[in-house]
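Marked as duplicate of an earlier ticket. Keeping the data here for the record.
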Amino acid sequence: MEYLKNINELLNIIYLICAGPIFIYIAYRGLEQIKAAKENTKITQENSKTQSKREAYKLAGEQCLYFAEKIIPLYNKLIIELKDNNCKFFEKYEVINHKEKIELKQKEKLTDEDFEGLGKSKYLQDLLNSLEGFSLFFASGVASENVGFIRWFQLANAKIIDAIIINSLPLLVF
């Protein structure tokens, strides 16, 4: 029995000597794991931001393609239709492109005949709906505005920009 008592005391001494360093080692390893998890979280956040930007650029590109394939042909049809119907609504406005803003000036007073000419259009409503659908992704922040608008502003000729602005007028006037 005495032998077991001595072993018990020896084990207690070993425990007291080793417990502190072992506990410190375990705590140190735990802190390393927390640090690694924190770094992984940062990397995940950065990847998520990069992925979000990538998707925003992709969506902006798709919307620009939609603009080229859907809106520009509708605009061309509308302009031809309005010229055929002798509607002078858009001719009474001047669009001035400045470096970072667009100014719209009314050159002549609008008449009831101008509004009637617009009201008879087969393409105006489709064009305005298409413009709204195009701008929705940008206005909500889902698509990259820099890609969608600034690039188009820099690359497009003045008539396309004029079309976007002037064709929004009926919404503002009515």
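See parent ticket for discussion. Residues 2-84 form the longest helix (83 residues).
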